């Protein structure tokens, strides 16, 4: 999945811009797998610089070339490569053309026991993957689970919650309990597996995928 930004809907619907996106996406697929961050699946700047579109230009050069043709600023922002032994579900929101969208998400699902997801069972998993991708677009999780929260994000949130709790004037042991309780709300808001499923808020995402 690649992100290329332009300024207007008019250009977003332009054939040259849409063709560019296809070239950029294919170039990203050809990138060296070692250039992909194993945690975020994002292609590194060096990995991006190394790949070429069919004309021989780099991704950034190809974007600049089309920008000059349509006379509008545009920018290649980022690319993600998702490798899995399972299935990938995807969703594109506000799609001007097949395979393109203003907002998009991809979700990889694998069998816990490593078994194949082909056949009828695989179709059900692919359907679930698409629904989960729709959930991601709607709920905007920042992390997969609690263990994925970065130390920086965790520290910043705990600091803010501690300051808020301290302002109540309660004892330190009560403040600690308040912070722990509010951290649970933080995980429910920003961690995918802790979030309430948008299509059935009586279930968490972790319950849906079991």
UniProtKB/TrEMBL annotation:
Q: Which PROSITE patterns match?
A: EF_TS_2
Superkingdom, according to UniProt? Eukaryota
An example Pfam family from this entry, by short name, is EF_TS
List the record's Gene Ontology CC terms alphabetically.
mitochondrion
Against InterPro entries, the record matches this protein to: EF-Ts_dimer_sf, Transl_elong_EFTs/EF1B, Transl_elong_EFTs/EF1B_dimer, Transl_elong_Ts_CS
Q: Which GO terms describe its biological process?
A: mitochondrial translational elongation
Q: Which UniProt keywords apply?
A: Elongation factor, Protein biosynthesis
Q: Which GO terms describe its molecular function?
A: translation elongation factor activity
Q: Where is the Translation elongation factor EFTs/EF1B dimerisation domain?
A: 1-210
What the entry lists under SUPFAM superfamilies is as follows: Elongation factor Ts (EF-Ts), dimerisation domain
Q: What is the documented function of this protein?
A: Associates with the EF-Tu.GDP complex and induces the exchange of GDP to GTP. It remains bound to the aminoacyl-tRNA.EF-Tu.GTP complex up to the GTP hydrolysis stage on the ribosome.
> What's this protein's family per the entry?
Belongs to the EF-Ts family.
| Designated name of the protein | Elongation factor Ts
Species annotation: Tetraselmis chuii
Q: What is the lineage of its organism?
A: Eukaryota, Viridiplantae, Chlorophyta, core chlorophytes, Chlorodendrophyceae
């Amino acid at each position: 999945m690649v992100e290329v930004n332009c300024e207007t809907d008019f250009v977003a619907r332009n054939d040259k811009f849409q063709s560019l996106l296809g070239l950029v996406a294919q170039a990203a697929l050809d990138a060296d797998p070692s250039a992909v961050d194993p945690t975020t699946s994002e292609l590194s700047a060096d990995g991006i610089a190394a790949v070429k579109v069919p004309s021989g230009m780099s991704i950034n050069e190809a974007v600049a070339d089309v920008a000059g043709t349509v006379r509008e600023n545009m920018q290649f922002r980022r690319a993600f490569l998702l490798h899995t032994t399972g299935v990938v579900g995807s969703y594109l929101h506000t799609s001007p053309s097949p395979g393109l969208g203003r907002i998009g998400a991809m979700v990889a699902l694998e069998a816990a026991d490593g078994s194949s997801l082909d056949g009828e069972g695989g179709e059900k998993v692919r359907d679930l993957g698409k629904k989960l991708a729709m959930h991601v677009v709607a709920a905007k999780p920042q992390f997969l689970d609690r263990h994925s929260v970065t130390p920086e994000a965790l520290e910043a949130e705990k600091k803010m919650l501690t300051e808020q709790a301290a302002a109540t004037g309660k004892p330190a042991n009560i403040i600690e309990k308040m912070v722990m309780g509010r951290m649970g709300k933080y995980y429910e808001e920003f961690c995918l597996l802790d979030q309430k499923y948008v299509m059935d808020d009586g279930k968490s995402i972790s319950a849906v995928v079991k």
